[in-house]
Amino acid sequence: MSSDEKQENGAGRPAAAPTGEATPAAADTADASRPVLELRAVSRVHGSGIASVHALRSMNLAVMPGELVAVMGPSGSGKSTLLTIAGGLDVPSSGEVLIEGTALGGLSRAGQAKLRRSSVGYVFQDYNLIPALTAAENIALPRELDGVSVRTARTEARAALAEIGLTEVADRFPDEMSGGQQQRVAIARALVGDRRLVLADEPTGALDSATGEAVLGLLRRRCDAGAAAVMVTHEPRFAAWADRVVFLRDGSVVDESSSPAPESLLDGEGV
Amino acid sequence: MEFLNTWRLALRIARRDALRAKGRSILVIAMIALPIIGVTAIDISFRSSQLTTEEQIDRAMGAADAHMFPGAPVPLLQDPEDPTQWTTADEADGETAESGTDADPEAEQPNDEQAARDIAALFPGAELVVEHGWYGAEVTTAGGLAAIHLREWDLDDPLTGGSATLREGRAPREQHEAAATTAFLEVAGLAVGDTVAVRGFDGEFTLTGSYELPGDLDTEQLTVLPGTGVVDTLAAEPGAEEYLSYARYFVTSDTPVDWDAVQKANERGWIVDSRAVRLDPPPRDEVPYFAAGHGWSGGGGSAPLGVVLVLALVILEICLLAGPAFAVGARRSRRMLGLMGANGADRRHVRAVMLAGGALLGLAAAVIGLLLGFAAALLAWNWLEESAGSRFGDLTVNPLELLAICALGVGTGLLAALLPALAASRSPILESLTGRRGVRRTGRELPIAGGLFFVLGTAVAVLGALFVSNAMVVVAGVVVAQLGLVATTPVLVGLFGRVGRFLPLSGRLAVRDAVRNRSRTAPAVAAVLAAVSGAVAVATVVASTNAENAAAYRATVPSGGVVISSDRPGDLPAATESALRTLPVTELATIGRLADTGELCHLLNAPAECAEPVVQLPAAAVCDREAFETGFDAARAEDPELTVAEYDPACVEDWWVKTPTWSPVSVAGPELLRVMEIDDPDAAAALERDEAVVYDERQVHEDGTLRLAPLTREEQDREQEPRPEDVAALPATVGKEADYGARPGEVLVTAAWAEANGYRVVDEAVVVATDRDPTDAEVQALREALSSGDGSPGSGSTALTLHVEEGHTSDSQLVLLILGLFATVVTLGAAGIATGLAQADSEADLATLSAVGAPPRVRRTLSGLQCGVIALMGVVLGSLAGLVPGAAIRLAGHQEMHELWRTDWYGGPETEPQLFLEIPWGTILQLVFVVPLLAAVVAALMTRSTPAVNRREQ
Fold it and tell me: What's the topology of domain A34-265?
């Protein structure tokens, strides 16, 4: 990617890439017509009896390769629960979650962990990186956990860092990096190896707007290259980077829009 | 490969995490390293103290090829490697001496030089070197005389080899020169360059140097050159006791003294310690001594079970203490572990990270412990050698053992991290990421199993104490019960929580927090429980033993009284003067002994022809020892409860009675009874009438007299009856013992009676009554006067002994104090760690408390109470738990002693042993009241009263 492209991507919302436009490498490894993530009638109830809370109600969602989906909604609407269930960190009370066609419910804990290593990347609002590991080691972590040799994992990590233009922080520990750098390293880690699903929970929440834009630009580019991403956000201008915005309230999808303009999102927040 | 990758990653994370949390890491390393330091230092010191065979030989015979000594005038069989083990060939054959040879094996082998030369001639090319010496030679010191070992030997002779090491100056080269051991110089207050004289030998010796015997550093020895004639002169003295002189025979040879040569010497009744044989011993089956069934049959020794148990308990204690520290680490790293989970780490990855932390810190502790242990061994080297009384060999390091110690450190670290690792790996990722925490329910399996173990262990300990009488069974039961109790701690902590409702806010919060978070409270409480119960158990044993010893203690004279006695006549007048000068004396009484009137008969080791008075017992009071031993054994086989007194009262012996002197007949007046505070008017009146007082009524004949007859030792050995005209009879009164259990003597007669009956009275002791307990300064002044002398005749004699009656004394209070301190330190450590963990957990609660208007001190109060609650739970449960094993161990000891009393009529206790069980209230009260309070105050003081402004965690 040229520096001009980087500038363009970092400065403003690019035209939405056609859904399913994957890099040759991604196209080789995945079926472009199959959703990377699919939620089928997923419900999640916390507690029981009078104290029970419905975090998600029979939710359906499919995220295709190359698609960036933004999830918006008021506090308590089930946004974070959606992400944790999608990544197998939480178990739905009913329904089914499929990642690249594999149902999470049929996997053991170890199997789910393996799936996360190979297919899913998480990006949180902050505290994304393991303090005891350098940037390169953080990126190499899922690969090393997966049994890939240290040398190979590090090479891949450095390549990922080069791709996001952060080779200079390879040997820095998280507390030696800025918040934006940390988030970009987290995104690089989320997609290292063959992983093609990024679940991002307010990745820009702790960043200033310029840095947030840069982080979103990176996420967008990774999706344009064939990855799929689900991003929870409160910020309409960040949601504008998405191909699709899903509005949640009380655990249910109340609206969904494609390629939204920021102004329309602002209107839709009150839905 | 994947396993290796996992562990490589885990070790990397753990290493960096340990470096980031330096305080916690140092704490854990210190806890694990402390026992490693001790074990390493002990291992290196022990290994180094074990001499090689060559070193042992060098110390025993210097550079000689053999050392030989006479055994018996009959053929002998000896152990080639330990020549102190030998037997006669006839005895080995199971024959009597008479059947194998005409010689009597009991007879002493002629120990003369010519016989030694004849034996040395058996060894080809051998040369005999003889060392002469005298034990107990009286040598002048800075303050008087000292009885020491005197040698005639040339220390410059290469033959001395490794048997002596010159420390200062040089070896004597002239006849008027001498060298002394450093131990003697120190005791005698002498230095190189001073002069000494040997009593009984004309002339003085200048000390040219000091040396030490590496094998016996405490030996007080003086060496003069051979040919000085000191030994011959001392032997020629009137009344010289020949057995004090000796000759040692060394052999140097061009050819080694081999096993054949040794056996030839054995044939002639001599024993040979040969360098060549010791270095290359013959096969066991070629040694007649072993073939005859003597000697150690081999087989490896095993580490005592007790050591293993103690080690296991120490490791358990470390794990319990270090475990919460790892748990703190896991809690603080919760987000990191959650992130790992979000990135695909499964349980084994999280476990590996935690365990890697344990392994790394354990390894660091092991390495540091090894290095510090090595340094400690080197620092303590000299002190240990001097305490042991012999020099160690070369520094010996056994790599395998050090590796095992290292493994112990790593293993301890892994064990300590195991439970936190399991807990962390089971923690839901989402909970770790969000920082949410619920109340952990502990499983029921472990407490139930622990309860069963506790019941089982207690049963084994108590039943073992009652029926098996084996301390090891009791200890094993105690260990099992302790482990069980540790496992039940979560349940016990839960029971404790019920008191919460009665407490004020902070206390209620602290108790409920501890109970609701048992996974972090229980290990800390268990650590305190284990340490306190151990301390209370030992304290119970120590206090009970002390009470038993106090009850069994028998004073010799009233408290504060003093007995000065001397083996040598003439010492006492000056000593009495010294006592009058230095002590608050109210009255004195002299005790004498009866001696023959012949020349030199007044000496303690009187010539054989001197007679001494012997009590002639009535026929009914004479014990036929031989008949008794066989008959009584048979009678007890039928009736195990039968006592000696029931079987034959004449054979009852009271071994435990205390008297100021040991003579069978003492010479004293009624003033001795006053000085010893014995209110016995009848005895006093008898002494006034110059009659006898006896303390064993069996000695009194039917006509009410005591009968004494003079017999030489030889006559006594032959059990010769005295001539009737030599037997003196005098009226006897049976005296009363003192209230404190002592007797003034076995038999008392007066000086007037002794003189009238042809005995000489030799002063033996003076008993001093005081109006109060002498102060330390007064006793020291008296000791000084007695040991260094004041120039008056007889003063400064080493023959003088001093006994100051202080009643029962013991250092049990110090032991109890140390136990209390140990338990306090462990309690503070464990409670402190758990409080740190609780604080890490409670930040949100504290913030809430602040938000609802709680004053800042609540933070400190809560922290202090959290620490205090954990300490209190641990010490209360530990104190209760410690009393059981303490009582069981005491009970086992009592049963053992009771069994000894019941079955061993000769060596066992005289009266039926009573069970002494003393609860160490002082230690328990200190632990229950002071320690939790201290823990609470320390924790409160070390807590900020306001929340810290934390930078964002990264």
Answer: Rossmann fold (3.40.50)
